[in-house]
Amino acid sequence: MALNKTIQLNRLSQKVSMPVGMTWGVPWREGELRRDEALCLTRTEDGTAVPMQHWATAYWPDESVKWTAHAAAEPEGGADAYSLTKGETTSPRQQIIVTQTDETIQLDTGVMVLTLGRSGSQWLHSITRGGAEVCSGGELVGLKETSSEASGIKTTRSEPFESQVHRMAIEQEGPVRAVVKIDGRHRAAGSSREWLPFSMRLYVYAGLETIRIVHTFYYDGNPNEDFIKGIGIRFAVPMRGEHYNRHVRFAGDSGLFAESPKTLHTRRTKGKYRDLFEEQTLGRSVSFDPEEDAYFLSLLDDSATWDSFKVMQQSSEHYRIWKRTSEGCSWVKVTDGRRAGGMAYVGGSGGGLACGLRNFWQKHPSGFEVHGTAQDQASLTVWLWSPDGEAMDLRHYDTKTHVESSYEGAEELRATPYGIANTNELTLWCTEETPAPELLEQMRQETDHPSLLVCEPAYYHEAGAFGIWSLPDRSTEAKRELEERLDGIISFYQDEVEQRKWYGLWDYGDFMHSYDPVRHVWNYDLGGCAWQNTELAPNMWLWIMFLRSGREDIFRMAEAMTRHTSEVDVYHFGEYAGLGSRHNVVHWGCGCKEARIGMAGLHRYFYYLTADERIGDMMDEVRDSDYTTVNLDPMRYYFPKDEHPTHVRVGPDWAAFSSNWMTRWERYEDTAYRDKILVGINSIKGANYGLISGPTYGYDPKTGVLTPMGDDNWGRHLAICMGGPQVWFELAGMLKDPQWEEMMAELGVYYNKSQEEKDKLTHGQISTKRFEHPVLSAAIVAYGAYYKKDEETARKCWGILLGNPFANVHLQEEASIVTHVDTLREIDWMNTNEAAQWSLNTIIALELIADYLPEQQELKLQEQSK
Predict the structure, then answer these.
(1) DSSP assignment letter at 766
(2) Cis ω before 652 (30° cut-off from 0)
(3) Which phi and psi angles does 742 have, rounded to 5°?
(4) What is the spatial distance between Cα 171 and Cα 326, in angstroms, rounded to a whole number?
């Protein structure tokens, strides 16, 4: 099938009038785009062709392209809308040139040249622009804190560490975008110990002065001994020109801290010197006549020289800025504020380096620190965890588990952070002069809301991106009310993130699990009821809500949750590699380590929409997570060791595996993983009642064979509420196996039948108590009703969804005003499990069985009859 249409692309965020690089993804229907077909990008407003490179990120079984990724550079900031069509791509006026030797890799964008080091502590050797060096080095730095206590007195000492580059690889080399990946570990100064692995990617675009950095660090220490006091990235910046023509900038709440090592402020700064002082504060170069201005210059010589500056975001509600003349002298407080903008600049005559740290205040304690502004070379340190705060404490909250009282999942503690990670994003600008305040503000905006192109919701839907979901439809009163409820739940959680301050380096992006109306708090201290950790697929809910709306605010919620849950909640190496931790007070605290937390099905939305390579790494990591279950059987408390290497449930365990394998198959066309899916499906077909049987099976990861262990051996709700149906619906579109679709439909129709009806179908071998929480079944029930054209099941599905509190309450109107430590708006019955599942399942039901949705008058009659 040839491409015969234009795909409309819009900016996710507001356009900035500065050069930007953009990378984004586009879905395609099967057979619509061949891998050898060229694509052309134009600005919609005037038809101007924009240079672009593109590549396939996923394929259909017929070898056509399922998803493409695209990269473009816009020197003037670009347009609000673009068109993507079939046609030859325009070549960029400036192309990236990549040069490599045994020791270095060099990236030349046409505006700047980066030289990277393949070994040693400095991954960045230099950045030059117009022949002038604007950065003379970059390395990772940190502090480890050790403490001891004697006679009731606690003493601490800090040990510095720095980066050691082990591997450097070019992943893309233009013509529009180049990507370099750097892997290594940190080494303690004066020691042979290497720890805290890191992985960084650098992104540059043709003709631009920007460098995007995605930085991941992993924890491989002992949480009882290895306390991280600080971790960050340090850049060396040559300082040229007079002290008064050197500048430091920190973004505040809405304005700038804008000073110089030698300000023109003295007690005699008047007249033209006052005007020059204002020019200096705006970042403009100032000059003096040695004779005419001799007295004022003598005043400057006598005034203090400020060599060091820093800002630290202590919490989501407070930051402080300090400055200092020299080492050994006190830091002087400049000001306090609430939420700093996460942008810093240091430079002198001939330019400097601006740096934005994304989600600066949300992922506190963060900071910027500048030293040496009065010297020949300054240092700019971006602190992901500022040493001005407390040391990082990754210990568990208790020494034992609380299974019965707190819903913690296992008697085994297993509360280790060994193998978790954290990813942060930075953007650098290598400037020829000190940026004006307006430009620094645009840099700040671009840091926190990076330019991204997205398709129209109708196109995502038409292309079948991510399976089955519906577009918003307010054509009837009943549909309009459901859409209001769906939007209202999103609004509630947006407000809740803010009023409950769900922020911090290790927390930002996650939601809490369930609520305590007595204390007016979420169950932050109640074992298995605290952090959500992907329980019941909130990631999928947020991403589908974005796809159907195109709203940036929802995209950013989903993005933050994906960054958190794919890193913090999952083990990237160690004995639990490929598994994640179930919900707990501490993200890595639960003794249940399961594949569903890290399954690719939760994270691939972000990957395909943005082509984010870090998420791609994570999805690669989990492809063989089924092997980890041999050492940690998910059903070890219920099924003792037997002839099977391990035991798994068809969901959430095998459903998670199948999402990993489907992703591996479509990304790399690796048919070994497709075949493993087929082996599993054939095993389920061999059970007495297909997906209705089990759901626990004996499992061999080497063969992929699932061995039935009975027809009534575990609860069915877990098979269908952790993202399984969403994965299986999309998988069905790839496999085209009517028997697999039939089995899903049979499970949906069967799930909520009476025991008498079930006994007729399964001969009394399966009990109703195994089919709990009907609201969690609504997606698979809607599928069954649609597939079987079963009106009774469709109406039963709507009865379940419309009988839920989320369908009948305006959350904003329902909220009560209560007092905890502050005045709050509270919904005392709220829980994230049902919020996510009701929303997700309602969206699917609106796509499949909207024709059976009762209208308001019919609902009122039903209520009266009850």
Answers:
(1) S
(2) yes
(3) -60, -40
(4) 43
d(CA 658, CA 260): 58
Cis peptide bond N-terminal to 365, omega within 30: yes
Q: Where are the beta strands (DSSP E) in 219-292?
A: 227-238, 247-251, 256-259
3-class SS string, 146-163:
EEEEECCEEEEEEEEEEE
DSSP state of 390: P
What is the end-to-end Cα distance of the chain in Å, rounded? Answer: 54
Cα(6)–Cα(87) distance, rounded to whole angstroms? Answer: 11
User: Contact at 8 Å (CB) between 141 and 233?
Assistant: yes
Cβ-contact 33, 3 below 8 angstroms: yes
With CA atoms as reference, report the closest residue to 838 among 849, 850, 846. 846
The pLDDT, as a whole number, for residue 319 is 98
**Which of 141, 597, 657 shows the shortest CA–CA distance to 382?**
141
Please check whether residue 691 is in contact with residue 649, taking contact to mean a CB–CB distance below 8 angstroms.
no
The pairing of beta strand 177-188 with beta strand 153-173: antiparallel
Q: What is the pLDDT of residue 535?
A: 97
Alpha helices in 325-429 (DSSP H): 403-406
Of 725, 662, 615, the C-alpha closest to 61 is 662
Q: Which helix (H) or strand (E) holds 387?
A: none
DSSP 661-678: HHHHHHHH--HHHHHHHH
Signed CA dihedral, 514, 517, 522, 523: sign only: negative
Residue 486 backbone phi and psi in degrees, to 5: -60, -45
Instruction: Determine the Cα–Cα distance for residues 829 and 319; give it in Å rounded to an integer.
Output: 35
Query: Which region holds residue 763: left if phi is over 0, alpha if psi is between -120 and 50, else beta?
Result: left
Strand order in the sheet with 7-11: 49-50, 39-43, 81-86, 7-11, 453-455
Instruction: Compute CA distances 740 → 349, 399, 626, 636, whole Å.
Output: 68, 46, 22, 29
Q: Are 122 and 48 in contact (CB under 8 A)?
A: no
- The amino acid at 219: Y
Give residue 2's pLDDT. Answer: 46
CA gap 712, 688 in Å, rounded: 11
**Which tokens in the block code for residue 517?**
């109306």
pLDDT at 1: 40
SS3 137: strand
- CB crowding 640-667: b at 16 or more within 10 Å, else e: eeeebbbbbbbbbbbbbbbbbbbbbbbb
Phi-psi region of 508 (alpha: psi -120 to 50; beta: other; left: phi over 0): beta
pLDDT value of residue 404: 94
How many Å apart are CA 648 and CA 638, to the nearest integer? 11
Token couple for 496: 């809740």
* Residue 91: Cβ within 10 Å count: 10
Task: Please tell me the distance from the alpha carbon of residue 56 to that of residue 25, in angstroms, as a whole number.
Answer: 9
DSSP β-bridge partners for residue 324? 308
Q: Which of 747, 651, 654, 768 is nearest to 692 (CA)?
A: 747
Q: Would you state the pLDDT for residue 860?
A: 52
Collapsing DSSP to helix, strand or coil, 756 comes out as: helix
- pLDDT at residue 151 in the model: 67
> Which one, of 648, 617, 628, 651, lies nearest residue 536 by Cα?
651
C-alpha count within 13 angstroms, C-beta hemisphere, residue 725: 30
- Per-run averaged pLDDT (10 residues), the chain, 866 residues: 77 93 98 95 94 97 98 91 93 94 97 97 96 96 84 80 97 97 92 93 97 98 95 98 98 97 95 96 96 96 97 98 97 98 97 98 98 98 97 96 93 96 98 96 97 98 98 97 97 97 98 97 96 97 98 98 98 97 96 96 98 98 97 93 96 97 98 98 96 95 96 89 97 97 98 94 87 96 98 97 94 90 94 98 98 75 51
Alpha-carbon dihedral 357, 360, 364, 368, rounded to 10 degrees = 50
How high is the pLDDT of residue 756? Answer: 94
